[in-house]
Design a protein that fits this description.
The chain is mainly α and 110 residues long. Helices cover 43% and strands 0% of the residues. It contains six helices and no strands. Helix 3 packs antiparallel against helix 4. The longest helix is centred in the C-terminal third of the chain and has 9 residues.
Length: 110
């Protein structure tokens, strides 16, 4: 029986040791993210070499629809920091993502 390991990380340089799920969030593939989130065994908080999670990357890239999907999932750790100590809020502000900032401010758990 062949099984696909959805939590496998690309160890190549360009992959930054990220999973397909994280790359989908990073590259704004909303429909793929929705598919991944329906899998019970998905490690939603996995990080790459820089300790950036799917939530951090989605916030930094300003994809509000993915940010909302992730915040709606109880498995998402919204308090994670990257290897420089930056939060999703800091990355959103640095990237000028005002719509994400407004949403994060209104969100109770950040």
């Amino acid at each position: 029986e062949n099984e696909c390991n959805i939590n496998w990380k690309n160890s190549g340089f360009s992959g930054m040791n990220r999973t397909s799920f994280v790359k989908s969030c990073e590259n704004n593939h909303d429909q793929l993210v929705e598919l991944f989130l329906n899998l019970d065994h998905l490690n939603i908080n996995t990080t790459g070499l820089d300790h950036q999670s799917a939530f951090l990357l989605s916030s930094a890239n300003g994809n509000l629809s993915i940010v909302k999907l992730l915040l709606d999932d109880p498995r998402c750790d919204v308090t994670m920091l990257d290897d420089c100590g930056w939060s999703s809020f800091m990355w959103s502000a640095f990237s000028g993502r005002s719509d994400v900032i407004k949403y994060l401010i209104a969100y109770d758990q950040i």
